């Protein structure tokens, strides 16, 4: 990834979405030739010179102080994910340029695999930053069955959330709100690319998806980012039907870059009953519910 281009496009896209009124400024006249704020308006709000902000928006974040970055984040009304992305871009700008390399995925620790096996009532999976699924418990494998069975999984490479979302038509049926799932998936990958712009595997995945999916290309161009920490997933499973599941993400401290996702259903809910059916199907796939 080209850090300077990433910085330029990210700052310009955030600036373009804020109107003077949203920024607390008075707009005189209607002949504004730019969408959103002008560069000098961002500079004024952030407390820096216009020339300095222009230099920043051209992609030069190397050596910029954290106080200036925080001032930019406030001026551009960045949310937490966007603020962290800006800090990651600045950190990458100050690092020594590196040739693209494949950062090895740490193995799933034996203790984590044992934990997965011990979790019998909740679907659980382990994935890496690139959204590869590296390990599951039986209920997690059953929940993610479409990711394993569809055309987006080729050869011996692992099931992958992003490939499934954009390369498998079944994804549109699997997620009740496919648009949100697609937007969040792209936002996660954009955040990862900002943290490590020289990761060849991330670069290759983004290139593959950009080449094969116009839906991915369109969303990638927005430069939106997303923190995937927890929330609600609504899934229409091909075997047990609708599932409304709460999920939490748990970083694995002994294997940086790996995360465990655990799904739970509200007690005594239709989704809890559906999880019970899913567990029965996971134990005996030939006994699928009618």
What is shown here, in short?
With 290 residues, this protein is α+β, with helices and mostly antiparallel strands. It has 14 helices and five strands.
Describe it for me?
GO terms for molecular function: DNA binding. Pfam families: HTH_31, MLTR_LBD. Residues 32-83 form the HTH cro/C1-type domain. The protein starts with a helix and ends in a 7-residue tail after the last helix. With 290 residues, the chain is an alpha+beta fold. It folds into 2 domains: 3-94, 434 Repressor (Amino-terminal Domain) (Orthogonal Bundle); 110-287, Beta-Lactamase, CATH 3.30.450. Helices cover 48% and strands 12% of the residues. It has a 5-stranded antiparallel beta sheet. It is built from 14 helices and 5 strands. α2 (39-46) packs across α3 (50-57), α2 (39-46) packs across α4 and α12 (200-212) crosses α13 (214-220). It is elongated.
